[in-house]
C-alpha cells in the first residue's frame, strides 16, 4: 500500500533529481584509515600546487576529458568544480531554454571564473523522471539515483566554441519529520529534516 509519505517523497525526489542537474561526486566514508587518507590528500594537494606553479597557462583549453563536481544547495542552485581539460570553478543554475532560473527547465548554466557554458540535461531529466525511490516509512527516509546523458554547448569567455558530452549520475537522500498526530506517520509535506543531492558527471569536450 502506498503511503502519503511515499507519494510525496516520490514527487520530491523526481523534482530534485530532474530539476537541478549540475554534476558532482559523492564523498567517501572513511573508517580507521582516516588519518592516512587525509595525509595522502595533503600530499596530492601540495604536489598539485607545485605543478600548477610550474605550469604555463594556455590562452585556450585543449580538448580532452573532464569531471564536473557540483553539490546542490536546492533544486536550482549549486556550486561547481571542474577538473581535467578544464580546471575551473564557480556556480551552477538550473534554467529553461530562455535562460530563466527554474527547476526542471532542461538546462544548467555553469558560470565559472574564466567563462561559462551550458549543459542540456533534457535527456537525463527524462531518465530521472522514471526513477522509483527507495522509501522507508519506519524511518521517514528515502533515497534515489538516476543516470543519463547530457550535452555541453554555448560557451563564453575562455570556453567559447565548446562542445561535449557528459554522463551524469544523480544521488538524492531525504529524511522527513513525523506527523504531529503522533501515530508514527511521516509528514512528507513538511520541510525535510535533512536532504542532500549530489551528482557525478564525466565526459569530454572540444573547442573550435
Overview of this protein structure:
There is one protein chain. The protein has 208 residues and is α+β, with helices and mostly antiparallel strands. It has one domain. Helices cover 21% and strands 39% of the residues. It contains three helices and nine strands; from the N terminus they run H-H-E-E-E-E-E-H-E-E-E-E. Strands 1-2-3-4-5-7-8-9 form an eight-stranded antiparallel barrel. Strand 4 (107-112) and strand 5 (115-120) form a beta hairpin. The longest helix has 21 residues, at 34-54. The radius of gyration is 19 Å and the shape is elongated.
Q: Summary?
A:
A hairpin with a 3-residue loop joins strand 2 and strand 3 (88-95).
Q: Report the principal-axis shape.
A: elongated
Cross-sheet strand order for the largest sheet: 1-2-3-4-5-7-8-9
Low-confidence stretches: 14-38
Cα radius of gyration in angstroms:
19 Å
Helix- and strand-based class? alpha+beta
Largest sheet composition: 8 strands, antiparallel, barrel
User: SSE order, as H and E?
Assistant: HHEEEEEHEEEE
Number of helices, where a helix is a run of at least 4 consecutive DSSP H or I residues: 3
How many domains in all?
1
Alpha carbon gap, first and last residue: 55 Å
> Hey, roughly how much beta strand do the residues contain?
35-45%
Oligomer description: single chain
Amino acid at each position: 500500500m502506498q503511503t502519503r509519505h511515499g507519494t510525496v517523497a516520490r514527487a520530491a525526489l523526481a523534482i530534485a533529481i530532474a530539476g537541478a542537474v549540475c554534476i558532482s561526486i559523492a564523498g567517501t566514508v572513511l573508517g580507521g584509515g582516516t588519518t592516512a587518507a587525509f595525509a595522502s590528500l595533503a600530499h596530492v594537494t601540495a604536489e598539485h600546487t607545485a605543478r600548477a606553479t610550474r605550469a604555463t597557462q594556455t590562452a585556450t583549453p585543449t580538448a580532452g576529458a573532464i569531471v564536473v563536481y557540483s553539490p546542490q544547495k536546492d533544486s536550482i542552485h549549486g556550486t561547481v568544480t571542474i577538473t581535467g581539460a578544464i580546471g575551473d570553478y564557480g556556480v551552477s543554475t538550473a534554467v529553461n531554454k530562455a535562460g530563466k532560473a527554474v527547476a526542471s527547465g532542461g538546462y544548467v548554466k555553469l558560470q565559472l571564473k574564466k567563462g561559462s557554458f551550458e549543459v542540456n540535461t533534457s535527456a537525463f531529466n527524462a531518465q530521472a523522471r522514471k526513477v522509483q525511490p527507495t522509501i522507508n516509512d519506519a524511518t521517514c527516509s528515502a533515497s534515489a539515483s538516476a543516470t543519463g546523458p547530457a550535452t555541453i554547448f554555448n560557451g563564453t569567455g575562455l570556453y567559447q566554441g565548446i562542445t561535449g558530452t557528459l554522463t551524469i549520475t544523480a544521488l538524492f537522500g531525504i529524511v522527513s519529520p513525523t506527523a504531529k498526530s503522533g501515530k508514527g506517520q511521516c509528514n512528507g509535506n513538511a520541510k525535510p529534516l535533512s536532504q542532500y543531492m549530489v551528482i557525478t558527471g564525466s565526459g569530454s569536450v572540444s573547442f573550435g
